[in-house]
Every structure is written in structure tokens, then in C-alpha cells.
Amino acid sequence: MLARFSHWRSLAWLDAGRAAVAVAVPVLWSPDATGFAVTLALVLMLGTLSALFDPNLGTLIPQLVAADEVAQASCLFDLTSRVAGVVGQGSVGALLLLVPEVQLFAVDGFTFAVSAAALSWLGRCGTTSGPGRARVRKPRARPQKAAGPARSARPAGQERSVRRPAAVRARRLLREHRAVGVAIAVHAVAMFASAVSTVGLPPLLVSRFGQGAAGYGLALAATAAGGLAGNLLTGHLPVHPSWLSGYCLAWAAAGLALAGLGLADSMPAVIVLCVVSGLLFPVCAVTLRALDVYKRQPDVDQTAVRTASVAGTLLLPFAVDAAPAAAFVGAGLLLAATALAGRCLDGRQGARP
After folding, report:
1. CA-closest candidate to residue 231, choices 343, 65, 83, 131
2. Greater confidence, 210 or 139?
3. pLDDT (0 to 100) of residue 327
4. Residues 108/22, Cβ–Cβ less than 8 Å
């Protein structure tokens, strides 16, 4: 399903659809049961379109640069996503002082429209439709009379094969590349565990250190600073044949840092752990995204990650309500244990990308 949208122009249409849906929210919203149902359906449509858009954008980014610059481009892409996430939260707080909550969807729709225009421009510039290749448009040559019966050197069906990448079955791909399957499993557990930080960091800072919005903003800034350093570092690291070991060890360290947040006894310790977490996340994200085999089937990872994130968001808030510190320790140790188990599998099977 995702491979059908692995085109710049297809992504432009997806973002145009997201713009239309986002603008429709404030137009169709009403403070009654019907309005709530309509809004819920529109938000569900936004989530569906995003699930199709996000993984394909990541696989098309390497087409914009040379082969030896893919890691740096992936790091820059990851960095801008993280910075946008932090800046976006602050921007929402400022916009709420000027417009009602429901009108924020209209602002979001404008950003989607800008993105759709940019992606459409990339499609017109001649970038490719399938991952792993680049097709540059050349000036159309004037037709010449052919001496023989053959009027074109292009084999039949070649244009179709260029525009639509061949589908790859997920089971066969993961069976042939077990290292990727292990990495995706660890990634899913990481996204499940990270939900405790998303919902639990504000109440943890309030209950243990008496910190409010200022303390939470400082923790977010520390995480963003760590992410900046991590992206600058990861972009210059080569992909090692035993990449899975480093990938799992990085997630294990991230799990220990998450558990440390539940044991921290001061705000400086929280800030240090946030910097460490931000430093490690780009190492994990870029390492997996830069693999050629991962680009052939990104929907497997996205499906696992989104399912785990939803499960974590639904289940972990109850643990945070019961005991915020213990929730951080438990989620962090779960991630560290899973990552170390993946590291052991790599050592036994000699996994290669």
C-alpha cells in the first residue's frame, strides 16, 4: 500500500488532502454530538494520510543528494523534524493566545498547502518516483526519421517499471534480513516506552521538583540540544557491518537514561539525562533509515512503531498516575532489556544488513 505513494507528486496530493481536511475541521465543527463525531472522523482521516505520508517522505529524501551524502541528509531531515516538534509546541502556546483552539487546524492546513506546493515542485524538477533511483528530465529531442522498423530503443513497459517500484513482500524481506526485523522490534518497544516521557515528564517534574511549565520547557530544550549534537555526530559515522550491535546498544543506553529520570534527585540530573536521550535518538533513527533494505519496506517499521506508540499512549498514563517515578524506571528497564536481547541475537546469528 505504502509503495503506491512513493512519488513526490503522490506525496504532494497527500499533503493537499491533509490541507483540505485540516481546513474542514473549523468549518464543520459544532459544540454538539454531531460536531464531535465529524471532528473525530476528520482527525482520523488526517492520521491515515499522515501514516501514508511520513514513511514515504523518509525513503525519498536520499534521492535529493549523492550516495555519499545520504547519512548527512538523513541526519538533517531527522534534526529538522525534532526542532519542528519542539518549536511547534511553543508556537501552539503562543497562537492559543490569539485564536481559538479549533482555528489552529486552519493554520495547520496552510502549512500542509505550502508543503504540497514544495513537493509538487520537486516532482516537476524530475526527481524519481521510486526509492533508490533518480530520474532527471532531459530536453525532448526532435523526432528523426528512422531507417529501420524500430522507432524506439526503449523496451515495452520500461516507463511503467520506472514509475512504479516493484512490491516487496514484508515476510520474505524480514526472513532474508533478520537484523532488520530485530531492529524494528526494538524500535517498536522504544516507541512504547517513550510514551511514558511524553505523558509523564510534566507530572514527574511537578511532584518531585515542584517545576511547572518553565522546568518542562527547560527539559525539552535540553533534549533538543542533545538531538542537535546527535545529528551532527551521526551524519559523519559510517554504517558498520555490525550496525545492529551499535543500534541496540544505543537504545539500551536510551532506556537506562529513561529509567534514570525516575531516579533523578535534582533538576541538573534531569537536564543531563535529557541531553543524553536527545543525543542517542538520532543515532538510532538515522542508522535504521539509512539502510538500503529498510527503504524497500518502510511500512513494516511504521506499522509496528505506530501500533506500539498508540498502545503506550493508552496504557502508560495509568502507570504514571499511580507512580510517576516507577513508571519511568519500568519503561526504561523494559527498553534496555529488549535492546540488550537484540544485541545478543546479533552476536549469535552474526546479523548483517
Report:
1. 83
2. 210
3. 93
4. yes
Determine how many CB atoms are found less than 10 A away from the CB of residue 326: 12
46: cell is: 488526517
Residue spans of the domains in the chain: they are 2-124, 170-349
Give the other-Cβ count within 10 Å of 57's Cβ. Answer: 20
| Extended strands (E) in the chain | none
Q: How far apart are CA 133 and CA 139, in angstroms?
A: 19
Quick: pLDDT tens for 284-303: 777 766 666 555 556 677 77
Q: Hey, what CATH topology would domain 170-349 get?
A: Growth Hormone; Chain: A; (1.20.1250)
**Element containing residue 332 per DSSP (H, E):** helix 324-349
Give the Cβ contact number of residue 220 at 10 Å.
Answer: 17
What is the DSSP-derived secondary structure letter of residue 242?
Answer: T
- CB–CB of 126/136 below 8 Å? yes
Name the band, by pLDDT with cuts 50, 70 and 90, for residue 173: low
Q: How far apart are CA 216 and CA 74, in angstroms?
A: 28
Three-state secondary structure call for residue 111? helix
Residue type, 133: R
* Residue 102 grid coordinates: 479549533
Burial label, 45 (beta-carbon count in 10 A; 0-12, 13-18, 19+): middle
Contacts of 225 (CB under 8 A, 6+ apart): 275, 278
Q: What is the pLDDT of residue 216?
A: 84
Cell for 271? 537536564
Q: What's the pLDDT tens digit per position in 27-70?
A: 888 888 888 888 888 888 888 888 778 777 766 776 777 766 76
pLDDT single digits (tens) 246-261: 889 989 999 999 999 9
- DSSP run (H or E) holding 60: helix 33-60
For residue 336 the three cell numbers come to: 534496555
Q: What is the DSSP letter of 266?
A: S
Asked if pLDDT for residue 351 goes beyond 50, the answer is no
